[in-house]
Amino acid sequence: MTGTSAGPIEVADPQSLEPDPEEMLILANDHALIHSMIDALPEELRVPLVLSSDDDLNSRQIGRILGISEGTVRTRLQRARQLLRQKIAARTHSTVGSQDRREVRNA
């Protein structure tokens, strides 16, 4: 077989693969924030979402557990996800806006 060798393989520095402590803190805060937003959802939306995401159940299984139709499960999952997206977007918008106001004041 002919061809050129790609050369030696470079191995990443093991320390560079470790997560940055600041990044880990941000991710932990984001994770806690999302869980608090999920906890604040109405029960009829929160329960199917948790069963779907945490327990990895499908709509049929969730429907059997809750005694509702698959269609109702899918609708509730869609509403729950939509509400979460709206809450996250509102929080992101308000956080960015407050940072902009602080930057203007400090300028």
Class by alpha and beta content: mainly alpha
CATH class of the domain at 37-106: Mainly Alpha
Q: Which shape, going by the Cα principal axes?
A: extended
Strand content: under 5%
Radius of gyration: 22 Å
- What is the number of E strands? 0
* CATH level 3 topology of the domain at 37-106: Arc Repressor Mutant, subunit A
- Let me know the average pLDDT: 84
Helical proportion? Answer: over 70%
The CATH architecture of the domain at 37-106 would be Orthogonal Bundle
Give the uncertain stretches in residue-range form: none
CATH H-level name of the domain at 37-106... which superfamily?
A: Winged helix-like DNA-binding domain superfamily/Winged helix DNA-binding domain
Helix count?
Answer: 4
Which sequence of SSEs, written as H and E, runs from N to C? HHHH
Through-space gap between termini:
65 Å
- Main sheet record: none
How does this structure look, described?
The structure is a single chain. Helices cover 70% and strands 0% of the residues. With 107 residues, it is an all-alpha fold. The chain has a domain at 37-106: Arc Repressor Mutant, subunit A, CATH 1.10.10. The longest helix has 37 residues, at 70-106. The radius of gyration is 22 Å and the shape is extended. The chain starts with 20 loop residues before the first helix and ends with a helix. 9% of the residues are buried.
Write the layout of secondary structure elements.
Elements lengths: L20 H19 L3 H11 L5 H8 L3 H37 L1
Helix pairs in contact: 2-4, 3-4
Relevant terms:
mainly alpha; Arc Repressor Mutant, subunit A; 4 helices
